[in-house]
Write a structure and sequence with these properties.
This protein has nine helices and 16 strands. The protein is an alpha/beta fold and about 280 residues long. The chain has one domain: Rossmann fold (3-Layer(aba) Sandwich). An eight-stranded mixed beta sheet has the order 3-2-4-5-1-10-11-16, sandwiched between helices. Strands 8-9-12-15 form a four-stranded mixed beta sheet, with helices on both faces. Helix 2 links the parallel strand 2 and strand 3. The longest helix has 14 residues.
Length: about 280
């Protein structure tokens, strides 16, 4: 007999900044397999973000195979017609773990956004699966997705565009390869124009784990940077396009690997992080 809906375990999200170790200690991937329930569980790799899905699948087929995952398979999607295939969607919804690879997040959403496959991802999370996304797959996890653009030295009005993501987390914009590609100015650009949104930058070989019970953990080799502009004073509405905005009272949190905070109301959570924790753990 299945558990009552109110007692079912909600799944977890593992949001990876790209460049995760796939050959040596594989800390991030090992944790993903553990979150799925162990190597005997069924893991599906979604390669839709990549223009060379066969190469992407070969990488993760070897990595997960090396960890003893026997029940591993690829879902390869090349059209929205395929993404609306009922049998494929039903099969994906029953996976214990789903890994969304890197590539181009715009391509990923153009192929699966609003389709049965999109619905299947949410259904899998609701029934307790772990869903991981790396690089483009990480950016796609939020409702507001960082789609394109760059800002090299300073934030620049209009330099970055957003799109609609998968929507597992709300009120958050996720950037990846964060420290390695020096993307602080890019994420500040997003926050300057969208202070309602929290900016989350994730380093390579690093992951933000959002647990179904409401906690977060940072794991891997680097750190997660959080930018909160909700208290900001800015002139961004009045300056010309590509100008550098004034941004006063922007709050930045740096969460290195090993940082861990519990569910809402945990007395160990700093007050300045409580709002972030509440927002980011409200997964759907």
């Amino acid at each position: 007999m299945s558990e009552p809906a109110s007692e079912q375990r909600r799944g977890s999200l593992l949001i990876i900044g790209g460049g995760e170790d796939r050959e040596d200690d594989m800390q991030v991937l090992e944790r993903f397999v553990a979150l799925c329930g162990g190597p005997d569980k069924r893991i599906v790799v979604l390669t839709a973000a990549s223009r060379v899905p066969e190469k992407m699948w070969a990488i993760y087929d070897a990595a997960f195979g090396g960890m003893g995952v026997a029940r591993r398979s690829e879902v390869r999607v090349t059209s929205r017609l395929e993404a609306n295939d009922a049998a494929m969607a039903a099969d994906l919804a029953q996976a214990d773990g789903i890994f969304i690879t890197g590539g181009d997040q715009k391509r990923l959403l153009a192929l699966i956004g609003g389709t049965r496959l999109d619905e299947a991802l949410h259904a899998a999370l609701a029934r307790g699966a772990c869903i991981a996304g790396t690089s483009a797959g990480a950016s796609a996890m939020s409702a507001h997705m960082l789609a394109d653009g760059k800002a090299d030295l300073h934030p620049e009005k209009g330099a970055v565009s957003l799109g609609a993501g998968i929507g597992f987390v709300q009120r958050v914009v996720i950037d990846q390869h964060f420290s390695q590609r020096q993307r602080l100015a890019r994420l500040l650009t997003v926050v300057a124009q969208n202070p309602y949104l929290l900016g989350v930058g994730i380093d390579e070989d690093t992951a933000l784990l959002i647990e179904g019970g409401g906690g977060i953990e940072i794991l891997g080799a680097g750190a997660v940077t959080v930018i909160d502009g909700r208290h900001m004073v800015s002139n961004v509405a009045d300056i010309r396009n590509r100008a550098v905005p004034e941004m006063v009272d922007v709050r930045l949190h740096l969460l290195p690997s090993g940082s861990r905070y519990g569910a809402d109301g945990d007395s160990a959570t700093p007050a300045a992080l409580a709002d972030f924790l509440h927002i980011v753990t409200n997964i759907a």
